[in-house]
Amino acid sequence: MRPLSEATAKIAGKSFERKYVALGRIVSNWRDIIGENLADKAQPVKIHYRKAQGKDKPTATLEIAATSADATLLHYQSGLILERINQIFGERWITAIKFSHIAANTSSPKRKKMPAPLTEAEKKTLSECLVCIEDEDMKSRLGTLGQAIFMEEKQ
């Protein structure tokens, strides 16, 4: 007897393998698909699969989250978006686009600026604090913590 989890993993792996790979490819190429001006205003959410009767290959619908105004703009460009997506996959696999609306007053996530690297004085201070620690793993972890503290103080 084998655990049910083994069989479930094999079956689910085959079923979901293509779905998540496809969504990942869409997300990684999103700026090229949708365009720079709308890439931050809309995002792919989900792929809905349906198998047509008498056909071997399933078709899919891409769900895109956008505000109502942006969804209207995207609706008029849906043919172009579908062509770009299917060009990535090399076949006409995604056949429709569905829009789910998000609130207009939500802002896009702000990207944090990378803080400046530590100065030589800060590096020297940090190394002087860690000189008496013998365990290399502990020294490395405390060094990372010290760098984070210095970076936070800069902001």
Describe the 3D structure.
The chain has 155 residues and is an alpha+beta fold. It has two domains: 7-101, GMP Synthetase, Chain A, domain 3; 120-154. 55% of the residues lie in helices and 16% in strands. The protein contains seven helices and three strands, in the order αααββααβαα. β1 and β2 (59-66) form a beta hairpin. α6 runs antiparallel to α7. The longest helix is centred in the N-terminal third of the chain and has 25 residues, at 4-28. The protein is elongated. The chain starts with a helix and ends with a helix. The mean pLDDT is 79.
Task: Summarize the SSE layout with pairings.
Layout: H1 4-28, H2 30-34, H3 36-39, E1 42-50, E2 59-66, H4 68-76, H5 78-89, E3 94-101, H6 120-130, H7 136-154
Helix pairs in contact: 6-7
